[in-house]
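Key result, reporting period 2: structure in, sequence out.
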């Protein structure tokens, strides 16, 4: 018995696919990833803040293996892990900053927007990660505005959800798209 695992199924030759059973795995919920990271941290004697675990879980995008790798990177061999350290190590600007930037977009405050971009570029943050965060927030706004129960679709804390709902009121469907 051979077990093949891939995220690029289309690259597996048809001669192999015809002889296989296929099992598709789904992404793991951010909160479940965070709980597992808390368990691992406890077993390893590492202090892991809940908010830090949630941040790592969000960045792992549903992959437990990726989450463990990010946790190992952030804990640096046994160090305590805080949300601030996770943000710094992973080059995250933060959900608050992304929401604030989107509010500037809604207001059309170009001077402040250029200031935010300049600040991100001149800091240790990765601009491509910042753009990804903005795209994610835009998607979250669409979900929050046009679904009955946004919590079913979003991996956000309660505070982030409240901030998102307030910020989303500034946008129409056309402007978000």
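The corresponding designed sequence is given below.
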């Amino acid at each position: 018995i051979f077990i093949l695992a891939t995220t690029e199924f289309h690259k597996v030759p048809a001669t192999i696919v015809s002889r296989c059973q296929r099992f598709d795995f789904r992404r793991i919920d951010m909160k479940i990833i965070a709980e597992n990271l808390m368990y691992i941290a406890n077993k390893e004697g590492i202090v892991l803040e809940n908010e830090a675990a949630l941040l790592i879980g969000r960045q792992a995008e549903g992959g437990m293996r990726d989450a463990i790798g990010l946790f190992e990177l952030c804990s640096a061999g046994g160090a305590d892990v805080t949300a601030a350290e996770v943000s710094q190590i992973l080059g995250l600007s933060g959900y608050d900053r992304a929401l604030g930037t989107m509010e500037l977009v809604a207001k059309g405050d170009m001077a402040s927007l250029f200031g935010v971009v300049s600040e991100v570029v001149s800091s240790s943050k990765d601009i491509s990660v910042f753009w990804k965060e903005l795209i994610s927030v835009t998607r979250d706004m669409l979900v929050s505005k046009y679904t009955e129960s946004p919590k079913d679709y979003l991996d956000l804390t309660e505070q982030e959800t409240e901030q998102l709902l307030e910020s989303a009121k500034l946008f129409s469907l056309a402007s978000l798209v």
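The CA atoms of residues 59 and 67 lie 8 Å apart. The mean pLDDT is 87. This case is discussed further under Risks and Mitigation.
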